[in-house]
Structures are given as structure tokens and as C-alpha cells.
Amino acid sequence: MKTQSHTESGSILFWLFIAVALFAALGFAVANINRGGGNSSLGELSKMKATDIMQYTSAIQRSIRIMRIENVDETALCFHTVQWGHTNYEFNPQCTEDRNRVFHPAGGAIGFQENVSDWYDSGISLAEGGEWIFSARYEVANVGTDGGTANSEDGSVDLLIITAPLIDTVCEGINKLLGYNPATPPAVPATTYNDLRTNKFTGTYVGENGSRIGDLGRERCVTVPDSPAFNMYYKVILAR
């Protein structure tokens, strides 16, 4: 009996040691996941935010293509909707026809989507920052028809959607999804953002000297070297 009791006690101690070792290993693994997974989770979250931005602008682009197929003139595209809270886009005379309105069921049938605050850098204050902005002030080099060497001509200005000031991780996420080096967003002229936001699209395409974004592609997150510098996303939704 003593032998059997001694054997049973040894077995219990053996399995107890195994259980403690497994528990310690599990704790170590969880700790490593928590320490190493922080960056991974942040990367996935940034990727989700970047994807949301890009999917919505792509949906607007597709809608405009369909409207053009249905013979809506490029000067008749109307971005007015009461959901903006302002009338900056209403001054296009073609807005009187619902078929010309991108955010109307009879037109582009795109639902109006407000931007999400955590896309943006709250430490940078921009006029109309954190909003979608539609403008036909700049052309993007090697997209559509180019104007002069460093200038935009009225017939070559592209229709853009922009938004700023994006946080660094979202900007990097966008460029990574596009296949660019995410750590080094290229710079555009310091005046670009203000030129675009103060010239919202109301049916006219106006190019000026120097109003060109370099050969940076149809879609990109870029740096505007203002004071302070900030990140701006743009997408060409109608190349001309």
C-alpha cells in the first residue's frame, strides 16, 4: 500500500509540474502576442480605414462613368446634396436636372457618406479638413491629356476628389495598397490643397500656370509641404 500511495503521489506531482509548465508557456505566448501583435493590429486597422476611403471614391468614379455612358456631359456633373450642409456645389446650372446629380437616385445613385473622424490628424486645422472635396482645378501628369510642359490647360484639367489631413498610418496604408512605398509619400506644391478646395466643381474646368500634380498616378496619398505639412489623398474620378 505504501508503494502504491508513493507511486500515485509521484504521478500527481508529475502532472502538476506539466500543468504548471504548460500554463507558463501559454502565458508567455499570450504576452508575446500582445507585445508583437500591437503593430499588426494597428496595421490591419489602418488598412481597413484606407480600404474604406478607396472603395468609396472608386464607387463614385464608377458612378460617373455610367452617367457619362448615359450621355451626361462632363460639365453637367453635379455634386450638390443637402447633406453637405452648404451649397458650394449647387451653382452648376445643370443641378436642376436630377439625372445630372451624382448623389441622387435618378443620377449617380451614390449614397452620401460622411468621413470618419479617426481618419484625420486632429492636431492639424484645415479649412474644410475632414471633408470630401470635388474640384477641377489641376491636372495629373500622364493621366488623360496633358497640357503644357508645366501648366494645365482647360481641356486637360482632371476632375479630382480629395480629402485631408489624413493621419500618417492611413496615408501609408493607402500607398501600400496601391503598391507604392508607404513610408515616403511624395510632395505636391504647397498651394495644391487650397487651390482645389476653393475651386469646387460647378461645371467648369479651369487650368492655370503651375496647376499640375506631378507624375504620381491616378490615385495617391501625398504630402502638402505647408506649415505644418499634412497628408492629402487624391483620386482622379474623371480623366480628361
Supply database-style keywords:
12% strand, alpha+beta, globular, four-stranded antiparallel β-sheet, two-stranded parallel ribbon
Count of helical stretches: 3
Task: Specify Rg, calculated over alpha carbons.
Answer: 27 Å
Would you tell me the overall average pLDDT?
80
Largest sheet: 4 strands, antiparallel
Helix/strand/pairing category: alpha+beta
Low-confidence stretches: 28-42
Name the helix and strand elements from N-terminus to C-terminus, one letter apiece.
HEEEHHEEE
Q: What amount of the residues lies in strands?
A: 5-15%
What is the terminal separation in angstroms? 95 Å
- Major β-sheet strand ordering: 1-3-6-5
Shape: globular
Overall number of strands: 6
Topology:
Layout: H1 2-69, E1 133-135, E2 139-140, E3 159-166, H2 168-177, H3 192-197, E4 212-213, E5 219-224, E6 230-238
Parallel strand pairs: 2-4
Antiparallel strand pairs: 1-3, 3-6, 5-6
